[in-house]
Amino acid sequence: MRSPLIVALASLALGACQPAGEKASDVPDRAVAIDSGSLAMAKDAANALGGDLVQMLTSELERGGPAAAIAVCADSAQVRSNRHGTPGVAIRRVGTRVRNPLNAPDAADQVALDAFAAAIAGNRPLPDTAFVVTTAQGTRELRYLRAIRVQEMCLACHGNPDSIAPAVRSVLVSRYPEDQATGYSVGQLRGAISVRINFP
Ligand code: HEC
User: Fold this and answer.
1) Termini Cα distance of the chain
2) CA of 169 to the centre of ligand 1 (A)
3) Does the residue 62 lie in any domain?
4) Which has the closest alpha carbon to 188: 156, 155, 163?
5) Which domain holds residue 186?
6) CB 154 less than 6 A from any atom of ligand 1
7) Is the Cβ atom of 77 under 6 angstroms away from ligand 1?
8) Is residue 153 part of a domain?
9) Is residue 9 part of a domain?
10) At 54, is the secondary structure helix, strand, or coil?
11) Which helix (H) or strand (E) holds 198?
């Protein structure tokens, strides 16, 4: 998961990922150079959020197993994610199939997710990716995305529904009636950490 930073613009098949009718402002602008300060800021935020969530998950799993961990996760994942934002820096997790609709990728996130999925399918390395997009308001922002892949310990809550414990399933049904984030297997792309930074 800690892949080296490469600004992998070349690997983003931009034109191919733009569905008809998509706003041009939603897709990466490859011509814009990215300064190392902004990149470092984005990387720090991604490291902090990634470390925080993994630590929360592992300590809760050790403490009370998946049934206890999922309650904590459901209550605090959003708050914890937002806490790693600072003025001018927004951070969240996005999913390939989401449990919480707040984690749905937008068009720019989706470009990166598609590139990550293609890299996994092609058995290629999975570096973090960064690009600049123009927002609907005409401002620019840096996007920095880090792939999140499924590990063994994720399956208790994201694996085959038949092997998810009843206590976990009942939390999913009550808290996430539109849950789509089950049926994953180890190694698959689960989503990404997505950082957005105001860009001059
Ligand atoms: C104890 C149950 C549990 C385990 C184990 C678990 N998750 Fe989740 N996961 C959740 C819950 C609950 C959410 C929804 C959080 C929210 O409301 O934002 C979630 C959301 C996510 C999201 C955001 C996208 C979405 O679907 O909403 C990602 C990405 C994610 N999990 C990755 C992982 C990975 C990777 C692992 C293993 C390292 C993992 N999860 C293990 C319960 C779990």
Assistant:
1) 30
2) 13
3) yes
4) 155
5) 32-199
6) yes
7) yes
8) yes
9) no
10) helix
11) strand 189-199
